[in-house]
Amino acid sequence: MRLRNVRRGLLMRSRILENLNKDEWRKTSNIVEKVSITSSTVLYHLRNMEREDVVERSPNGEGWRFTPIQQMELTEYLTKKSRKK
Questions:
Q1: pLDDT digit string (tens) for 38-57?
Q2: pLDDT at position 33 over 60
Q3: What is the CATH number of domain 7-84?
Q4: Reported pTM
Q5: Around 55, how many Cα atoms within 13 Å sit in the side-chain half-sphere?
Q6: What is the CB neighbour count within 10 angstroms for residue 25?
Q7: Is residue 10 left, alpha or beta, with left meaning phi > 0 and alpha meaning psi from -120 to 50?
Q8: What is d(CA 85, CA 32) in angstroms, rounded to the nearest whole number?
């Protein structure tokens, strides 16, 4: 099931995503410190984004990061899209 993107949720997810990358795992506590929202809210959004294949959780408990396979630079996406035309 896809989640409806409401403005408040989009803003929270954007703030969380600003603190992630595809190469390093980030602990939930580190994200909470950076975005200044509760850990339960951060976990709620991270789990929703995990279901959508935007982020992944480390099986070893190292934290969260972008899902490497699903994420690409906007320029890469636009280049691929223009080749299909």
A1: 999 999 999 999 998 889 99
A2: yes
A3: 1.10.10.10
A4: 0.73
A5: 27
A6: 16
A7: alpha
A8: 43
With b for 16 or more beta-carbon neighbours within 10 A and e for fewer, the 39-77 pattern comes to eeebeebbeebeeeebbbeeeeeebbbbeeeebeeeeee
Q: How far apart are CA 33 and CA 71, in angstroms?
A: 25
Q: Residues 54-62: what's their mean pLDDT? A: 93
- Spell out the domain ranges in the chain: 7-84
pLDDT higher than threshold 80 for residue 83 = no
Instruction: Give percent above pLDDT 70 in the chain.
Output: 75
Handedness of CA 51, 28, 20, 63 (dihedral sign): negative
Task: State whether the Cα torsion 74-56-37-19 is positive or negative.
Answer: negative
At which residue do the structure tokens 């294949």 appear? 53
Token look-up 């906007």 returns: 74
Region 12-19: mean pLDDT is 91
